[in-house]
Specification:
The protein is mainly alpha-helical. Helices cover 79% and strands 0% of the residues.
């Protein structure tokens, strides 16, 4: 028999360990009991919420399959005619592209009749372009500001156009706000152009720190374009003014 069992300190330590284990076991049992008690007391509410969520998910899936997807396909088919008309470029063609004619719907009708679809979203962008070409900046802004991202390839271009429109209105703050969004593009052609425009806007605000950052980003990420666009002299100018 081990001599440890005659040691009073050993027996005290063993007793404490036993009590600690019993206390931990009681806590576990108490926690489990509380969980079962909670579910027993609120089981109807819990089941109701769960069933409600499942029904909501099923409803959304059904809405997408049986309504939104067919609507998007229908809207996409309707887009062909106004897009072809828009490409003609003259004022009358642009108006027909917007408003439609006896044979075809225009962008405006598509945006209002197919509001939940991605095609409707694209129609807002194209409507904005038409209004820009028709020299109606307020209407152009109205539709471009409604144009949502949704991974649309035109989104960054739209932000650049919005920036230009606000700049034309003399609202430099908003012009910078949307130029920053446009400059976030990773496109190797449009990104450096938008970054350069952003740098120019910062210069006009005499925000030389951010002007330097814009030009520097072109140098760091789009060096070929940096050289082709001659951005070096603008960077030097911004650095000189920043360090004054």
């Amino acid at each position: 028999m081990p001599l440890q069992i005659f040691n009073p300190f050993y027996r005290m330590k063993k007793k404490k360990n036993t009590e600690k284990k019993e206390l931990e076991q009681q806590k576990k049992e108490s926690f489990v009991t509380k969980i079962f008690k909670f579910f027993d007391e609120y089981n109807k509410i819990i089941y109701g919420v769960t069933i409600g969520l499942l029904l909501l998910v099923c409803a959304l899936l059904a809405l997408n399959k049986f309504y939104i997807t067919p609507q998007n396909e229908k809207a996409s088919a309707l887009m062909t005619a106004p897009m072809e008309t828009m490409m003609k470029g003259d004022s009358l063609s642009l108006i027909i592209a917007l408003e439609g004619d006896d044979d075809n719907e225009g962008f405006l009708a598509i945006t209002s009749s197919f509001g939940f679809t991605s095609t409707s979203n694209t129609a807002k962008y194209l409507a904005g372009l038409c209004y820009i070409k028709l020299n109606e900046p307020d209407e152009a802004l109205r539709y471009l500001l409604k144009f949502k991202h949704k991974e649309n390839v035109f989104w960054y271009a739209a932000q650049g156009l919005i920036s230009d429109l606000f700049d034309d209105q003399g609202d430099l703050k908003k012009a910078i706000k949307y130029a920053k969004k446009a400059a976030a593009s990773k496109d190797p052609y449009f990104a450096p152009l938008n970054l350069f425009k952003l740098g120019q806007l910062y210069e006009r605000e005499e925000d030389w720190k951010n002007a330097v950052a814009s030009y520097q980003t072109i140098q760091d990420k789009f060096y070929a374009e940096f050289q082709t666009m001659g951005v070096e002299k603008y960077l030097e100018k911004a650095l000189i003014n920043k360090n004054k």
